[in-house]
DNA sequence: ACAATTAAAAATGTATACATAAAATTAAAG
DNA sequence: CTTTAATTTTATGTATACATTTTTAATTGT
């Protein structure tokens, strides 16, 4: 497990108080490394939304921000259907088969963590998106997903969502299989908006 | 002028051959610094699209890629009208006044470099976008602009575009002033698509 | 007692030196 | 002569040490 993964995991588990600046030396001591790799990781995590700048200098774990989630899902709802549509013509049976396999493996294995579910979720969509052969669009969407990752721990706590989500996945896959591009795009947009809405509601209600 | 700015400028001026990997020690020697700040800058520039990974390790200046430009402007055409629409209600006369001043200063001063024009261009739109108070959306769009920066040197070589662009800017401003939100959004989308189309054509025709 | 200025501290930025892992070159075997 | 394995070389990753900047605390003057 790399330093990057360790720090990211510890952020996700709430080991660092939100808003409180992270000191490079403290992190270096804690993880038994020097400050150089810590600096590298902090910059990387900052770019992925796991950390934000604190004042002029230094970084901190950001507060959970419903508005950020709203923005992220708003952008995803605009960009992902676009990329999926661009992939339409290049969707071979083999690719759709692999996408289906991912969905089935999600159903087969129970007791998956939120992180694992989120990952498989992305693998399913990414499998389709990749077919479009649009690296820049893909990279930007992938980055939006990474930014969402910080919140998915919450999403899965409303566990009953999982089944709904799977139904939507299969509906998208079916539409793609039958060549109904616009329908698949519309379903995907709804899928993303629904997930975003659920997450925002969840963040706005309890004690975050 | 910071190391970051120096290296970015040298990339823009074609000092480094595209595709050829950049060595940390060479850069450090050239700029008379150690490898540590070089590493920091390289990572940052990589995130902004000025550099890409080269093989397993190291970075290189990417080739000019018309498909990348197409993707970037496609995304901008989807996201920027969205953010502009979200700003609608909060657009005070003062903000629109500042936006107008930026446009006028672009007309007033002649002999501006491509970089300067591009910057004022962004200032105009950013001025409006900021009013929406949607930091995450804004940040993502800003990043897309940064990625476009690498190409704007080309855009301005078709200098006659500048006047058309300005007309579009004033049309958008006028629509916003009169509260015609959907019209302003449509104009903005056209504005972005036109710029993207022009740039893509320009990249596909001559000897890049 | 409060403000401002100055001194101390703490944290980040940078340089040098060492460790490790790719890459390339050479040597050996088929 | 080609291919593969081993060795050398080269570049990056990391640690330690130093410099600079920012923040905090203290001291002094009004």
Mean pLDDT of chain A: 91
Number of domains of chain A: 2
Oligomer: homodimer
Overall CATH architecture of the largest domain in chain A: Up-down Bundle
Report strand % of chain A: under 5%
Structural class of chain A: mainly alpha
In CATH's first tier, which class of the largest domain in chain A applies?
Mainly Alpha
**Shape descriptor of chain A:** elongated
Distance between the termini of chain A: 29 Å
Cα Rg of chain A: 18 Å
**Helix percentage of chain A:** over 70%
Largest interface: A-B, 23 and 23 residues
Most strands sheet of chain A? 3 strands, antiparallel
Secondary-structure element series of chain A: HEHHEEHHHHHH
Low-confidence stretches of chain A: none
How many helical elements of chain A?
A: 9
Report on the structure:
- Two copies of one chain form a homodimer.
- By secondary structure, chain A is an all-alpha fold.
- Chain A folds into two domains: 3-60, Arc Repressor Mutant, subunit A (Orthogonal Bundle), CATH 1.10.10.10; 66-204, Four Helix Bundle (Hemerythrin (Met), subunit A), CATH 1.20.120.
- Helices cover 71% and strands 3% of the residues of chain A.
- The first copy, chain A, has helices at 3-12, 24-31, 35-47, 66-87, 93-108, 114-130, 135-155, 161-177, 181-204; strands at 21-22, 52-53, 59-60.
- Chain A has a three-stranded antiparallel β-sheet with strand order 1-3-2.
- In chain A, a hairpin with a 5-residue loop joins strand 2 (52-53) and strand 3 (59-60).
- In chain A, helix 4 (66-87) runs parallel beside helix 6 and helix 4 (66-87) packs across helix 7 (135-155).
- The longest helix of chain A is centred in the C-terminal third of the chain and has 24 residues, at 181-204.
- The model of chain A has no long low-confidence stretch (mean pLDDT 91).
- Chains A and B meet through helix 3, helix 4 and helix 7 of A and helix 3, helix 4 and helix 7 of B.
- The structure holds a DNA duplex (30 and 30 nucleotides).
């Amino acid at each position: 497990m790399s330093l990057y993964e360790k720090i990211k995991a510890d952020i996700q588990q709430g080991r660092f108080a939100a808003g409180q600046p992270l000191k490079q030396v403290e992190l270096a001591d804690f993880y038994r490394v020097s400050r150089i790799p810590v600096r590298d990781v902090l910059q990387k995590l900052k770019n992925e939304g796991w950390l934000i700048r604190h004042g002029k200098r230094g970084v901190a774990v950001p507060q959970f921000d419903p508005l950020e989630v709203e923005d992220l899902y708003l952008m995803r709802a605009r960009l992902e259907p676009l990329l999926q549509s661009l992939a339409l013509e290049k969707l071979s049976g083999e690719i759709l088969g692999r996408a289906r396999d991912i969905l089935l493996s999600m159903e087969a294995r129970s007791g998956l963590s939120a992180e694992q579910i989120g990952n498989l979720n992305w693998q399913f969509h990414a499998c389709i998106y990749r077919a479009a052969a649009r690296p820049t669009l893909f990279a930007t969407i992938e980055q939006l997903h990474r930014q969402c990752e910080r919140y998915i721990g919450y999403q899965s706590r409303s566990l009953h969502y999982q089944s709904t989500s799977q139904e939507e996945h299969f509906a998208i896959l079916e539409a793609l299989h039958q060549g109904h591009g616009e329908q698949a795009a519309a379903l995907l947009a709804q899928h993303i908006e629904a997930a975003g809405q659920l997450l925002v509601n969840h963040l706005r209600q309890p004690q975050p």
